[in-house]
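Encode chain A's predicted structure.
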Amino acid sequence: MFNRKMFWSAAFFVAGASGCSSPPAKVPDQRFQPPQYSLRYPADMFAQGLNGSADVDCTVTVEGMTKDCVVVSSTNESFAKAALEYVSGARYKPASRNGVPVEQTHHKFHIDFKMP
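Encoded structure for chain A:
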């Protein structure tokens, strides 16, 4: 089995053997990769064949998570609940100032629900 320690050992060996003085490329930090999270269409709205939308206001943290989310408007309570669940569970690229991640308050998310 090939693990991270073996990767760095192999990469260092190859870099050293080729006469390259710079270290190998850094492996991207997996903490900031968004998870595969999909929007769930509310079952009751799907059964009725209804489309809708919801607007959610949140704070996006420097880690890319949301907090203090509030539904501002929605066409139906079912769409509001599904949008809030989605926005709260997904991960985002945080805002940055001078290349440094910063917390962003009152970020607006507009979620549309359309029948397939």
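The chain has a mean pLDDT of 78.
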